[in-house]
Write the structure tokens for this entry.
Amino acid sequence: MPTIVFLPGYASDMAGAKADAIGTWAARRSQAYVRFDYSGCGRSEGEFAHGTLGKWTADADAAIDAVAPGPIVLVGSSMGGWIALLLALARPAQVLALVGVAPAPDFTRALVDTLTSDERAHLARAGGFERPSPYSDTPTLYTRSFIDEASHHLLLDRPIAYHGPVRLIHGQRDPDVPWQLSLELAQRLASGDVQVALVKDGDHRLSRPCDLALLTATLEALLSRCTAD
Amino acid sequence: MHRRLTLPPPSGGGAPKRQRGPGRAGFLAALPLLLAAAPARPSEDGPRYRECVLATRTAPAHAAELAAAWRLEGGGLPAGHCLALALTAQGQPAAARAELEAAARAAEAAHDPLTASLWGQAGNAALLALDPAHAHAHLTSALLAGTAAAPGERAGWMLDRARASVALGQNAPARADLDAALALTPGDPLARLLSAALANRDGDLPRARADIAQAQRLSPTDPEIAAEAARIAKP
């Protein structure tokens, strides 16, 4: 049986509702499950401001090597979906399947396009800017080094050569990552086994009980498919 | 233990595929992509090396920049190794070979236990670069430096040196290397396949038939082996 690996989103951590829900579900079916925090996030040491997509992908790669060296199914939330795709490209034989929850590959591109003049000035002068977060009391920091480094990992400008099953779940009331991005991602993926579930009244977090039930049901179906093959 | 990393094909796409077998155009046409064996010490298999190696698979040009910058900062062996992986991923095996040769020489001077593995990778890169003379020299260095290496690793260098020898028109030393490799790893279908192909070239049909039959037993679904079996069976 593969191990499920949860990849949190930007400035998020492994203690969120989705990570917890997968934990409960995994424990009930004795399913191996790994969650972790990127450096500078949650309970991991390091400076959040020093984080880059490349570093956090390497963190995930190290965690997988350390505790889940066998077959894995990646579940990526928001930016974690981007990291999941990078890992799937880097270790295609090991990544049996991939689930994206409001996946946000290339999200820095939209971020840069929507910068206010104030944010742009901060980015140039101070190397970063903060935006109020609807999900936290503290604002979210975006650094120039993160945005610059992420530009080397953009995926949506070409076919994505992953051939395993992919399930994408996206809320159509997602104010942060438009649901159309999941359709674009589905189109870019080389795999023929790609399914997109759109939740009409779903937000970015997709953490209501009905959303979490959809997530675990998706995993359940995927796993029975993986073991049937 | 060495953490082995296999590279995706330079064109990208699909699972990393170990190309092999003599193929249509002879021993040098299709080659194993074995550039691997990350530096083993904790200080060298650190987060920066990991980040760089990951990038060689998804963003090789970025990886080459990371490695080059890191080397300027004194990144040493792991930086040079990542640069070689990045160059290979970008379809520049000749440049990768030069990097790996430099890394192997530096390792040798420092009596580093990775010396033999780096020579072996330099030889493999030379084969990819269609440079059998360098390949032969580097693989000989690997075999000399790595007398205590694992049998599978030594056999791999012998198989690669056999390919180099055949490309240089020297079938007799190639036969010696293949026989030595078979003695170390008798159950390796690739060694049997290469042995069968060389025997066929040398006109030793009984040997070719015996080896290819053994290869088919060891790996019944391998298309390269099936293709060579068909060539040998041809009247």
About this structure: Chain A has a mean pLDDT of 95. Chain A touches chain B through 18 residues (CB under 8 Å).
